[in-house]
Recover the amino acids of this structure.
């Protein structure tokens, strides 16, 4: 754990600088277990306890720490294991860990697929797709763990957005359109810096990489039904790939 100099009059609130510093240490594994108390953190950063309290509150809202009254503040270590399997989705992994998961649609629209999407979904030039932008939420407090963009071929999945908004999970919405079984044809996993908007949605610094997962799913006949991009908070999700899956 290293001391981070607080830059006053930098344009960034002091409590935000402390939050970002502690978040980086947590995500790097340098800070675990119980956090120092408010007095200790205030002495470390040379600020008052109220400023520290704001920073810790922000860390809790991001899901990085948990405040247990009478016991202290602890780094959350309940990462979600996303089993990247042939027939699995995030919802299956979350359910298997006895947690609640749903997606909240932010925007949906019919659009002409760009070249990369056309290729991945085996569509002709100029083909239309349904684009859905959503947030992956978990637990009773609906913590945001992922920012997603999904593309579905049209006209096959016209109206899917309404079913998705109602049911809250992609595989349930697809079932209404006759897709009872599907397989993961392709997955690409990289680490990338998020856009400013994505960082804000995940409540993390824009300087902290996210897990960037691209997936193509096909139906039982082998026809592509979805190309999805998921940007996961590294503090919330770890991707688990098992050989043979």
């Amino acid at each position: 754990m290293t001391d981070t100099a607080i830059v006053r009059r930098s344009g960034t609130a002091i409590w935000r600088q402390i939050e970002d510093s502690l978040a980086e240490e947590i995500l790097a594994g340098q800070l675990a277990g119980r956090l120092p108390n408010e007095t200790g953190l205030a002495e470390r950063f040379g600020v008052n306890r109220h400023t520290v309290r704001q920073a810790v509150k922000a860390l809790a809202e991001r899901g990085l720490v948990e405040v247990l009254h009478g016991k202290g503040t602890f780094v959350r270590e309940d990462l979600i294991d996303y089993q990247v399997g042939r027939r699995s989705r995030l919802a299956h992994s979350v359910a298997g860990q006895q947690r609640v998961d749903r997606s909240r649609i932010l925007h949906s629209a019919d659009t002409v697929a760009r070249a990369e999407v056309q290729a991945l979904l085996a569509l002709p030039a100029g083909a239309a797709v349904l684009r859905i932008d959503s947030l992956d939420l978990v637990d009773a407090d609906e913590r945001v763990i992922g920012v997603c963009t999904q593309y579905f071929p049209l006209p096959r999945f016209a109206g899917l957005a309404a079913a998705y908004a109602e049911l809250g999970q992609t595989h349930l919405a697809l079932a209404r359109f006759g897709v009872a079984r599907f397989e993961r044809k392709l997955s690409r996993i990289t680490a990338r810096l998020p856009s400013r908007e994505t960082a804000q949605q995940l409540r993390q610094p824009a300087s902290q990489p996210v897990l960037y997962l691209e997936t193509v799913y096909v139906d039982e006949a082998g026809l592509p039904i979805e190309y999805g991009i998921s940007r996961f908070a590294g503090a919330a999700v770890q991707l688990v790939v098992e050989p043979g899956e």
Q: What stands out?
A: The chain has a mean pLDDT of 89. The first strand starts at residue 65 and ends at 68.
